[in-house]
Amino acid sequence: MTLTPLAIEHAYMTFLFPFAYHPKNRKELCEKLESEGFTFFTLQNKELENAFYSEGITVSHEEIAQFFYPYVEDKLFPAKSNSQDFLRFSKSFNITGFLQSKHETFPYQILSTDITLCPFGTGIITIRLQMTDEIKEFSDVVNFIHYFRVLEAKLEEEKGTNHHFEFGHYQSTSELLFQYLLPFLEDYLIHYKTNTYGGLPFLEDERMLVSAYLLSAENAEIKNEHLFRLGQVDGKKPDGVPFISSTNPEYITNYVTEHTHVRWAPSSYVVTSTQSQITIANRPFSKSVRDIEKFMGIHYYNLLIHYFYRMMLLKVAFEHSEINWSKDKLVVDDLIELITRFSSHYYFDDVVVRTEGKEISQMLQKIFRIQEHYLETKTTLDNLYRALEDRSDKRNNKLLFILTVFTVVSGIYGMNLVIEEWNGQVNWSNVWTYSIFEWLALLTALSGITLAFVLTCYSTFKVIRNHLHRYKRNGPH
């Protein structure tokens, strides 16, 4: 299949990398970020409107505030860093280097980096950059996106890619991220499992999610093949030949119809998939600045909150699959508490006020399958809760049976089960001379005292264990 070339004159990108941290270290991490030169982001600070973006790009904080419903805005943009909601810390870098693959060199500039601390011990690293050549071929831009979003190259065709800057050379995007941009962050990360990158169950395919705004030559024809390749991030084969992962025109058309927002076609398209959300337009730069500002502002946050939804639901699904039914009662309780708090405080079907934003939001929900994951999770946890209740009922019934038997024996025969010797000084050497009723009285008394002691110790143990578990998980309140 012959692919149509397309000249790209401007390319802006944001790469999103999810991570997990201990909620009890949240305050310490905030202090560390500020000591490393990161600025706490608030909508009230208007000086930040053009601090972290490309030259000539200003992201209006008032527009962001009006884009989301108030109940979402309050959680996305808290005024103080001691909030338990979303906390964004940003730092400007403006460093220029290039990515070297086996066959090509891609110059680019890292504009800034965000670390957004989300609720429930999750977070998102955002890397903003732009490619610096004035005119680039479409396949080269998509190829750069493909290579950059790979944290650690494991496939043979992806190996051999390096990042080069005046201050150093890095063998992978992961090295660039954790050795230069955020060298302090690894100390705060937690790992769920050992067979995935960073131990993260919600980092799919060990690649970052990419959002991009590409500006082609004015009035250039944007074809379905271009939109399909953006959704699939199809750049070039290892030998440098442009690549598309389908040769079926009907399949490509159906894919584009399902994954593309065409409100502003034929001058602008937004392609959304589980690995990317990319806008491509064919207007002059002077007429596109406003759209680029939206891309870095309101549309970025629209993507971020839906990505958070997807992360949380994948996290809950993973933790449920790891439950040891015989031992992890506390984990089960935590899981039920987590999804309940998530549902009531952060998960909303409708987050955006404006029509265009609603349409893109609906596209994200559909492609990320958020509603499906949510319903599956709720159903699974409902079944889990009922199963736990059944187990608890069975334990309570057994305990109630024991107590009933004990109460019946001591109640019915209580008036007769008297050992006269106990009215004075007890001589335990006379135990062997007790009658059968006196033995029954002795055993009833000892078993009652033992049962009360055991129940008291067990209840105390559970209270202490729950307290220590919550302290270990969340730290002091």
Automatic annotation (TrEMBL):
Keywords: Membrane, Transmembrane, Transmembrane helix. The chain crosses the membrane at residues 399-419, 439-461. This is Group-specific protein.
